[in-house]
Amino acid sequence: MASLSGLCSSFPSLKPNNKIGAELSSFRKDSLAVSSRSSSSFKHSVAREVSADLSKTNDVAGLKKAKQGGLEKDPKALWRRYVDWLYQHKELGLYLDVSRIGFSDEFVSEMEPRFQAAFKAMQELERGAVANPDEGRMVGHYWLRNAKLAPNPFLQVQIDKTLAAICDFADSVISGKIKPPSSPEGRFTQILSVGIGGSALGPQFVAEALAPDNPPLKIRFIDNTDPAGIDHQIAQLGPELASTLVIVISKSGGTPETRNGLLEVQKAFREAGLDFAKQGVAITQENSLLDNTARIEGWVARFPMFDWVGGRTSEMSAVGLLPAALQGVDIREMLVGASMMDEATRSTVLRKNPAALLALCWYWATDGIGSKDMVVLPYKDSLLLFSRYLQQLVMESLGKEFDLDGNRVNQGISVYGNKGSTDQHAYIQQLREGVHNFFVTFIEVLRDRPPGHDWELEPGVTCGDYLFGMLQGTRSALYANNRESITVTVQEVTPRSVGALIALYERAVGIYASLVNINAYHQPGVEAGKKAAGEVLALQKRVLAVLNEASCEDPAESLTLQEIADRCHAPDDIEMIYKIIEHMAANDRALIAEGDCGSPYSLKVFLGECNVDELYA
Ligand SMILES: O=P(O)(O)OC[C@H]1O[C@](O)(CO)[C@@H](O)[C@@H]1O
What we know:
It is a single chain. By secondary structure, this protein is an alpha/beta fold. The chain has three domains: 75-132 and 336-522, Rossmann fold (3-Layer(aba) Sandwich), CATH 3.40.50.10490; 143-329, Rossmann fold; 525-607, Winged helix-like DNA-binding domain superfamily/Winged helix DNA-binding domain (Arc Repressor Mutant, subunit A, Orthogonal Bundle), CATH 1.10.10. The chain contains 21 helices and 15 strands. The chain has helices at 18-36, 39-50, 61-69, 75-85, 105-126, 153-175, 201-210, 227-237, 256-271, 289-297, 318-326, 331-344, 354-366, 386-398, 428-433, 463-480, 495-515, 524-553, 561-567, 574-586, 612-615, and strands at residues 87-89, 94-97, 190-194, 218-222, 244-250, 280-284, 301-304, 373-378, 415-416, 438-445, 456-458, 461-462, 485-490, 591-594, 604-606. A six-stranded mixed beta sheet has the order 1-2-13-10-8-9, sandwiched between helices. It has a five-stranded parallel beta sheet with strand order 4-3-5-6-7, with helices on both faces. The longest helix has 30 residues, at 524-553. Mean pLDDT is 90; it is low at 1-55. The chain binds 6-O-phosphono-beta-D-fructofuranose. 6-O-phosphono-beta-D-fructofuranose is lined by residues 196-199, 250-252, 255, 258, 311-312, 396, 523, 526. It is an enzyme of class 5 (isomerase). GO terms for molecular function: carbohydrate derivative binding; glucose-6-phosphate isomerase activity; monosaccharide binding. Belongs to the GPI family. This is Glucose-6-phosphate isomerase.
């Protein structure tokens, strides 16, 4: 009997299935029928059926009417519109241009009451109301940059103490006061951050945006349960593993991907003869599994993650601040930038509130139902990860099936993007001429290089002038073809401006969520995938047990997929069992006696050895 696991590299070819094809085409017809109507008016008729409270629907007459008028094209009128709507935050040096979004005055007036309601909800949230009703939680990321706003003295002390502890710890690590036990350098030189989602995206964005060229500690990330990815990060560290500070970040302290990353890293430490506890730091909620592990094992340090800070808004908590501080980023400046932006976005005057202006544009551009995608294009390499960061912030916050009244609304705004002008040579072609299903947000940075470093690569023109030209050219070319855009401009990429950008979008998401009446602070949809993944792993254990039992009875016995499914008492899960076998065979953990994975019915599988311990487990 040969071990033929390699045969699994051939996959079943996809054959047309008439039934599925018919269902698909009728589904497409339905969706075309929806989009061929005014998407907002369709939505409204549904909303009317389920809720008598029109203030909570997307019934904005001005939206549809003004959209029919098209975008302003007269250069003089457009310039007036630019000047009229230009938002400037003087101290932050931040501008917001919404002139290339075509909202009308009528639309703005109609939206005004909703904005006032959103501002009120935001004030209540900041005062400590339970703004995440499903989870019964306060939402307090705004307090992180101004502890005085926290609703009680206990929280204020908690915030201030944690910030002081972060700064102290970072200073001690950088100065070598806290050092790894067995590193020749005598100090920590690397950070390995283990975390996922909100426990990775902020730190990744900030590292890319703000870490100096030669940081005191360099950072790497394990943000997945991909074994090859983990091996790669550990291999890249090489002997520097001995001088690596491992920061394990998980609010819940029980996220499987993060736990797996930790276990893999701990194994690497054991194999290198290193004591993990002397190099491990945990950032998590008090008494979580991770917190208890770190405490019992005596890790170097533990920092709290607060119940009232969501993962995707945790960049200004220990989650983002500790890694940033260790890389030499001025975290107090990040907090100042965020706090200044928070102050500005508390304004109840729409025109003076940049977050509200963003929310207004999003509502207009997407008909208040996410009918268009948000393409985020920073024209600055160091802001590359901003779009990925915003993807979670916006999509996990706004992508909701039900509104706060329990109506099915399937809200959300899709976010993607990379950077300009690189994307000019990738997908801008489609944006300019192809399917019109997006609006763009340009992020412009005025300062090209630090002072004194610029030079003209041709008379009167620098490299940065080209970047500027590409941004302006793309903005104009898109607008000429009726593609709307927002432009956010900052002077430089600094801790202060990055803090401000994060705060701007956090608030815009919160305000927009109020406009469309959804809970921005929970993520019930993520649970379904997590639960299903758990079920797959449980099924895999049953498959292994069945194969083991068969091997113990007769080492040469091989089973068909149907036999495995029957013995697992899971005949309906035969497709998943097939996928499990395919994956295990590809990783030499099950053997295929006959057949290949391209012909599932031909497969006969066995384990090759009997594990008696497991048999009686
Ligand atoms: O910090 P944790 O608890 O490990 O969660 C990581 C991420 O997982 C999610 O809960 C989604 O599964 C995100 O909201 C969160 O940022």
